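Before the break, one more example. Copy the sequence into your notebook; we will annotate it together after we see the structure.
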Amino acid sequence: MKLIILHTNDTHGQLHPLPTEAGEYLGGYARRATFIKQQRAAHPHLLLVDAGDYYQGTRYWHAFRGEPDITLMNMLATDVGALGNHDCDGGIEVLAARLRQANFPVLCANMTFPPEHPLADAWQPFYIKKVGGLKVAFFSMLIDAMQLYPPDFNADVRVTDAIETAKKLVPRLRAQADVVIHLSHLGQLGDVAVAEAVSGIDLVIGGHTHLPLDEPLVINDTPIVRAIAGGQLMGRVEMDISAGEPARLTGYRLVRLDDAFADDPAVVAEIDRWRAKLPPERVLGQLATPIDTRSQIKGGGESAAGNFFTDAMRTYFGDAVDLAFVHMGTLRGDRIYPAGDFTNHDLSEYHPFDNHPMLMEISAPQLKHILEYGASALPYTVGTFLSQAGLRVTIDPRRPRMEIAPHHPHILSPGERIVRAEFHGEPVDFSNESRTFRIVTDGYMGRGGAGYFVLKEARNIRRAAVSGSAVLKWYLEKFSPVNPAPDGRITILA
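Here is what the structure looks like once it is written out:
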């Protein structure tokens, strides 16, 4: 049997096509629907799956808490979905409502809740679907970095190790099904770790990491595939499956959802219905240069996206701070915001979490720690990459990287990638424990999240009275047009 699997991940509420540097638009549910219908008409054995993070991140999330996204996934007849960490951002009641709304099973095998809890039976560890006389088993696991979850979720959740969970579950599924697929929201590193440790998984369809895999990444004979955040691309997998025989991946491609795919009229009408109920759009100010929040741009070096946030914070807090920092997981949209008017809707997507910034004092050695950690993933572009205002930093990714223990907070290797940092034109002596800096960070990083646990040891920690969004609004209103174009504050060698 030839099985076709169409897959998406990390749509993050992007109902509409998104602009590219070339000026074209890619993605959107209306084009997605057209492509799916074409594929279903051509292939009798087809499954539609999603690897999680369905709705958080756009103006629609702030207004409707994921309801239009699940409505559209139902319209597209989604077969199965993974639970994503940001699907939990609205808290227990919102998540329970969205899971009740879904007409498809949502999976998570490594996180459970006690009996009588509102989420006790909200998802399944696995799902087996009969297709063309054969059985296809899906299971899913969710990243267990618990600082990513809201307090009410964190309070009662029971977490089991992903590798141990897979070692117990995969043999059970192999005994019941002809093919076993991990529909994952662990991210690339987690997917690789599970594939290395656990045999018998025929395919991993990944999520949480926002960058696509143009070709399957094969680990321990297990292919890993992944589309892109925002929905501009859709993955198409082709597998040959026979009873009693190993499943074989025979085709994989990422399909650009460009204007070659006409908008599906019913989906357009549904999106228009929700759009008509959005709060009014209003201009907050102007950008003199575009800001690009796509992962491969914001996570790979100095960016206008990072400068915009850090410049606003350093300006707002003025003489109270020396330096401003933001990790790239805070800045969202996975799109290019063009030069010109910047609206309240743009802001809700650029900074959807709206955490209150954190202010504190850190020592020079602690500064070295966060700079090293911010550069530790290079050349890979990830959300932990650090943008800043107030320093000039030189990074050499060829030098040893900082390594921390998988579950924090323990440094395995301190790293040597920060070649130089200058403050007011003078080099920083990172060995000087008496040298301190007053800093402001995004709220999540400032609480020790995203791996920046050293900030929990800072002095004089306090939460700003205003939100990050309020700071950005003030900055736009007072200084527009703002120009956050890269100015050489971060230099990456080689």
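DSSP finds 14 helices and 31 strands in the chain. The longest strand covers residues 248-256. Try to locate both features in your own notes.
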